[in-house]
Write a structure and sequence with these properties.
Helix 2 crosses helix 3. The protein has five helices and six strands, in the order H-H-H-E-H-E-E-H-E-E-E. It has two domains: 37 residues, no CATH class; 76 residues, Alpha-Beta Plaits (2-Layer Sandwich), CATH 3.30.70. Strand 2 and strand 3 form a beta hairpin. A four-stranded antiparallel sheet has the order 2-3-1-4. It has a two-stranded antiparallel sheet with strand order 5-6. The chain is an alpha+beta fold and 160 residues long. The radius of gyration is 20 Å and the shape is extended.
Length: 160
């Protein structure tokens, strides 16, 4: 894996000057590589990890399992791409197992997310069923523990 890409994955908040220092490259070279990664469609954006547990963010998050009918010649792709275009959809993944797609959705309220599912998602031709799970609390986001006050070296308790 490209060392710059690996650093971005592990320490996404580093600026080009820090990346250059760590990689022992010039800042100009790091910027050139970043531009190349963006042009090649590898680096699509850098996103901060937010701990909104103590904030009134006004955002309701949900995970929706979707069963769909594959199409001849296209499989699941056309419908998955169509679902991905909705503004409410944050992420959409093709999955193996009991359902076909895993869709992450954001909405202003429980009712808005429910309306999205009942009026937009479940009414699409090819959608067989949905199961909606509302996220109540985040404990870990993208490898970062949220809100825990435990010491770094604290061991997990083991019951006899």
């Amino acid at each position: 894996m490209n060392p710059l890409l690996k650093l971005l994955l592990e320490g996404g908040s580093l600026n080009p000057a820090h990346l250059a220092q760590i990689l022992k490259l010039s800042e100009t070279e790091v910027n050139r590589q970043l531009d190349t990664l963006q042009k090649n469609g590898v680096l699509l954006g850098v996103r901060p990890i937010l701990n909104l547990s103590g904030e009134e963010s006004g955002v309701v998050r949900a995970v929706i399992e979707v069963r769909i009918t594959p199409e001849r010649g296209g499989g699941f792709n056309r419908l998955a791409e169509r679902i991905s275009k909705f503004d409410e959809v944050e992420s959409c993944y093709l999955m193996s197992g009991g359902y076909d797609l895993l869709v992450f959705v954001n909405g202003a309220s429980l009712q808005k997310v429910a309306a999205f599912v009942s009026e937009k998602l479940s009414t699409l031709e090819g959608v067989l069923s949905t199961a909606t799970h509302f996220m109540l609390r985040s404990y870990k986001e993208h490898g970062v523990l949220l809100g825990g006050k435990a010491e770094e070296n604290e061991r997990l308790k083991v019951a006899p």
